[in-house]
Amino acid sequence: MSYLKKILLFLLAFGCYTTVKADEGMWTISKLNSTLVQKMKDIGLQLSTDQIYNESHPSIKDAVMIFDNDCTAELVSTNGLIFTNHHCGRDRVQQVSSEAHNYIRDGFWASSRKTEIPIKGLTVKFLISTVDVTERATDLLKTKSIRKVQAELEKQYTDTLKGYTASLDGYSTGQYFVAVYQIFNDVRLVGVPPESVGNFGGETDNFEWPRQSADFSVFRVYAGKDNLPAAYSAGNKPYVPKTFLPVSLSGVHDNDFALTIGFPFMTQRYINSYDLQEEQEVKNRATVITKGKYIEVLKREMDNDESVRLKYSNKNFSAGNSYKLALGTLKLVNLSPALANKQKQEAGFQVWVNSDSARIKKYGKVLETLRQNYALQRNPKYAHALITGAMFNDASLFGIRTRNIVEQLAKNDSKQLNKAVDTYRQWYRSFSKDYDVATDKKIVRTMIKLVKKEVKKEYLPDFYADIDSKYAGNIDKYVDDLYARSVFTTSQGVDNFLRKPDLSIKEDPLYKYGIAVYDKLIDLKKQTADLSTDIRKLNRLYEDGIREKEAGQLKYPDANFSMRLTYGTVSGATPRDGLVYKSQTTLRGVIEKEDSTNFEFVVSPKLKQLYYTKDFGRYAEKGQLFTCFLTNTDITGGNSGSPVINGKGELTGLAFDGNFESLAGSIIYEPEKNRAVNVDIRYVLFIIDKFAQSQYILNELTTR
Asked: Which of 102, 366, 427, 685 stands the most exposed, by the fewest C-beta atoms within 10 Å?
């Protein structure tokens, strides 16, 4: 076969179009090509393509799943046992925790099937098949909206009896695929280390290296009759998987092959320069400002009250993660040539367009019109991002959630009213468990002041006019009044309202606050709706032009929460001048970082005892217990919990983070800097065995 034909077949298999390095790219796993597989084999892969992905017989793809619609997890036993990250299971662990049973602080280890904890609402999704529907979708989109096309195509592949659900995914390559998943909704907590182990280093170490966090948790998938998905029942049995991942005790070493399979969220590697500037100056700036203030308030309250720490543990983690990600992206993109490179590409595109009259007619004004539209929407977009980050939270939810009750009261529809009340009651029962009025009041006061400082007057919610007219501009008095007169500040007040709801609730100050926030966000969205529609059309046109200009080149598609494969090696880095990252850390680092005055660096006495007695069991190597390691695999959010697999198909670790230099990874990939941070599977097993002494879990694993 000629070289040209080989290249052509490669391009057809991927539907992609630009050259990349072997360790870059979140590759579409259902379209693996022999050329790509050979590149992996050249650096250590010993598996065939069919062993990685096959829809007719068991393959590694059957052992990997979407966990809780947010992370990745993997099967590690014949009895439905799964591993994912500690931070992926955190909010579910918090859901079943209480002050009497604080599993966030103390951890949890089941000793039998009967002691495993069912978790309401938790699901996992296994990929069954991927179908290329590009031709059909493209044809339907000529006359129908994307939502109607999505509904029509997804319906074709949905099977409620087998628990199959379908998702139409659009790719940056112009292709459309339907991914068919099987959803299981009886998932139970089996084991989780205490936060001092599973989240050692906390927010301080987040997106940093070195790391020594045992970032894992253990769950089990249950099934009903015929091993099919079923609602929770005490009679359900552990799911029997098609395959699972054996665990390697051989460890990892520099230059070892590493394969990571998971479900990365959206990347934006191919956005235009105007979109990139908006991401930086609107979205990321607003996130840094709002989440930074939120964390500042929460830290004070959590440090002063252990009950607040439990209630706001997950909210604080989520806010901290968003803050650091936005901050790092701002800094790293600005330091990189990303914007200049995109502007250079656009200049080259315009030269290419201007050289042909047909292109001028089709693409001639696309870039200039994009520039104008992005400029027009910038101020309202920034106001929307700022208000969302600052105010679309606990306090505003009272009013927003009550809207449906008010609407049914106005309609005098008793049947729908009862449904709305029941829905609200269920929400409030869950919400109030992790809510503290005094803390919320301090957050709201801070955020109202922040928004007033940052947002232009014409974009402010209506209650700012009341603050000026009724409270002489005194925000503190306004907030005091909000909480003093609202029925939503006590469970009794909420219960009284739900028992006898009436339209007088519209005068409740927290209701009015929430509705004012909601209405302003809707108004701001409407102000940019037409511009956003035009921008989407222009972006598609520009992308068509780029594909036409760069036809014949190879390019991996942007991530879109579909199953992807990335590969590379165990590798340290020299990301900045004078700074060297070794590829591995050890338990010694935990001891060196200990700080009993800082909850993020408290070290469990049991863990210290194991360290000083060198009681590492079979998990040590040359007297060292390794904790985490780096790979140059290309990952992003959604990959949390993804398995790190060696060349033999064995589990060597769990991906859980990136280094600081990879924070802009959704936009740029710099192979000399970007690193994935993974917990060593031997450290996971050490915690299960020596720290938790959970033979119940350990006995299920297949170790090699």
From this structure: 427
